[in-house]
Amino acid sequence: MIQDMWNALLHQPNTQWVVLSTMLLGIASGVLGSFALLKKQSLIGDAVAHAALPGICIAYLLIGEKQLLVLLLGATATGLLATYLIQLITTTTRIKKDAAICLILSVFFGTGIVLLSKITQQAGGNKSGLDHFIFGQAAAMTRNDVYTMAGAAGGLILIAFLLFKEWKLLIFDPDFAKNSGLPVGLLETLFSTLLVITVVIGIQAVGVILMAALLIIPTISARYWTDRLGWMVVIAGSIGACSGIVGALISTISTGLATGPLIVVTAAGCFIVSFTIGPKRGLIQKLMAHRVRLKEESI
Amino acid sequence: MTYEGWILLTACLVGISCGMVGCFLIVRRMTMLADAISHSVLLGIVLAFLVANSLNGIYMLIGATVIGLVTTFAIQSLHNSGVQEDASIGIVFTTFFAIGVILISLFARDVHLDVEHALMGEIAFIPWNTYTVFGIEIPKATGMLLCITIFALLVILMFYKELKLTSFDAALAVTLGLPVALIHYLLMGLVSITAVGSFDAVGAVLVVSMLVVPGTCAYLLTDRLSVMLLYSCLFGAASAIFGYYGALWLDASISGSMSAAGGILFLLTWVFSPRYGLLRRYRAMITS
Amino acid sequence: MEALNVKDLQVAYDRKAVLDQVELSIPKGSLTAIVGPNGAGKSTLIKAILGMLKRSSGQISILGKPYSPKNRNVGYVPQRGSVDWDFPTNALDVILMGRYGHIGWFKRPSKQDIALAKEALHKLGMADYADRQIRQLSGGQQQRVFLARALVQDAEVYFMDEPFVGVDAKTEKAIIDLLRELKQKGKTVIVVHHDLQTVPEYFDHTLLLNRTVIANGPTEQVFTEDLLQKTYGGALAFFSTNGDKRVMS
């Protein structure tokens, strides 16, 4: 199987493109995920991902064909609507954030399922292939899809690189950021929008249900290796990239397996390794420290 | 009973059992944990199928309850080791769900269990799969749901005081000597079995909407927990019924439509609730 | 007899000791103030005593017996911010929760429990607010509800975490009347207290705390400039008005 993977990677341009794009996606979500985690917004990504489904379906119903860019525009629209509604519910009622997230997530997803079931039974035309958006199917991406996704992911990484220090300050100390004359509102909005875009471009490869994992797992894993934000972003990006590559490769060579779950399981593997041997608060490190302390105390 | 009657009954039972249990999740701010458990339940069901090689309800119930509690425990341990709570939730359930999906695609393809089923349930097929109890032929899934609903109701009635107190003020509960952790796991166990019971009907993902939406509507209408429980059951049943007829009208997925109906009911409550609605807020703002 | 005895108590967060080598005893029937600067571990002390926080070491005994919630001789009034005010419940219902320890598993509150709760509401001047959702009460009224709840617990030793913070004058009066009444009945009340000025007036026993016990004894012996300076690390200013000694932190 490893042999097959190498062959595919070395000789099939299509596979190379798919792998490259999932790698870029992994980096982008690792980077954006790090900021989202520190802003305590990890699960907003989950809501956005689920909420993307009705957007994709509506866009498809409107234009009647599977054109990735338009579908992603639809997904971005409903994704942003979902974040806005969560905000509105928590500010205008006594409903807490967790319940608001769950509510919006499940209702949007349910609506998406209604639309999807309608689309799949519509006679004629090519089978929509929209159900690939649920668990992700990297192999089903066309050349154009791959270009779109790689371009968007590259753009996201570039913006995050340029705005790194501003976002860092914004997250760590919003009041100070405001005092230093940063356009805080603008930066916040930009961040939310980019987070939504990350989720949206990821759903074709990872799927709406599991996309949140790609934002969360590499980021948390990175915490076990470093205490510095800069390194954290780099490590999270690398773990994301790794998961993307491995997941996409296994999925493309053994047809039928959805890409999303494979990427997530790979990322979870990285997490377990980091959790165990990571030098910062990893399990082994903790045990050693405990031992040293016991020794010191007995002396 | 007619085919349609059984479907409606099953859907209502889903709404009622989830609505009841969901209230406690809302007042405890633990709906995300329910989201996690209902996803993980898929893994429990698949594992139970692989081990016992049958889709018997009892095995599924055991498998799912065990995985549900494992999920709760894993999230708690990760959180205790210093990971943010919502991130711990995000790690555990996505991983379990991903493993579940992979196992289904690898091993369980030819049986009744498939990915689509896991996602949105197959309520339309429930009336075909029956057994006979006391001379009445009832669908298996409906029978199991009925038992689960009654069980959940009994547990809530028996431990109502304790559930309420640990939800409201865990510190006082500790000083009164209540086993706070045990009650927490009791509730999570209840969430797991309700999620399994509803799995056939609405699937692993949409269970979340039945757990959260009716309770949230009720939360905007009353200031008494007992009344909230009652309203929540009513909202659950109402989403089921409206959802079913909505699906017939649109000729679309029943479970998705139940969830969407819940969303519409929420929207109405949000705007018109006499206590906490947007209209009332708006009016209060104008008069002041 | 001693109401509370603590031996060698240590509490640590993340390896850093928040409380260390705490040894103290509080006489039965006293009104005790726990006083100390922010971060001195006052709330932590109460929570550790009542087992809401993990102790690294320490033995706690209440009225001569090792502490266990099963003895039902301890009442607790949490800091006001610690519960969810949107919880679907009203004032009377919250007070009834104080009876849950006595009611026991599987049973509902009896008529007698309800009567007790109503009486407590009445005593704190809250009889008209029984049906109010708790968010709709003012800060002082919320505090009185929690006191009423402690009252119906019918405990011997009460722990209260900053009951006077953010309350109106009427509530402050109601609280202090209640404390005195409890004392008269022979109960012990231990209060985390912020307002140094009122310590000598309200409390007969004082515990000065800053990560460990600085001093513990009758208020007139402990509440001195010297010991207070030691507790607050010299960050206090003393000045007098009308012959009274006033303290500002």
UniProtKB/TrEMBL annotation, chain A:
TM region positions: 17-37, 68-86, 98-117, 146-164, 190-217, 229-250, 256-278
Subcellular localization: Cell membrane
Gene Ontology CC annotations of this record: ATP-binding cassette (ABC) transporter complex
Major localization class: membrane
Keywords tagged on the record: Cell membrane, Membrane, Transmembrane, Transmembrane helix, Transport
Any one of the GO BP annotations: transmembrane transport
Membrane topology: Multi-pass membrane protein
Coiled coil: none
Domain of life: Bacteria
Stated family: Belongs to the ABC-3 integral membrane protein family.
Name of the protein in its database record: Manganese transport system membrane protein MntC
Organism annotation: Terribacillus saccharophilus
Native organism taxonomy: Bacteria, Bacillati, Bacillota, Bacilli, Bacillales
From TrEMBL, chain B:
Keywords annotated in UniProt: Cell membrane, Membrane, Transmembrane, Transmembrane helix, Transport
Annotated TM spans: 6-26, 33-52, 58-75, 87-108, 141-160, 172-195, 201-221, 228-248, 254-273
Membrane topology classification: Multi-pass membrane protein
Record keyword Amino-acid biosynthesis present: no
Subcellular location field: Cell membrane
Protein name, UniProt field: Iron ABC transporter
GO biological process, one term: response to zinc ion
Keyword Repeat: no
Organism field: Terribacillus saccharophilus
GO cellular component, one term: ATP-binding cassette (ABC) transporter complex
Superkingdom of this protein's organism: Bacteria
InterPro entries: ABC_BtuC-like, ABC_TroCD
Record-stated family: Belongs to the ABC-3 integral membrane protein family.
UniProtKB/TrEMBL annotation, chain C:
Limits of the ABC transporter domain: 4-236
Any one Gene Ontology molecular-function term assigned to this protein's record: ATP binding
Top-level taxon: Bacteria
InterPro entries: AAA+_ATPase, ABC_transporter-like_ATP-bd, ABC_transporter-like_CS, Metal_Ion_Import_ABC, P-loop_NTPase
Annotated keywords: ATP-binding, Nucleotide-binding, Transport
Family assignment from sequence similarity: Belongs to the ABC transporter superfamily.
Designated name of the protein: Manganese/zinc/iron transport system ATP-binding protein
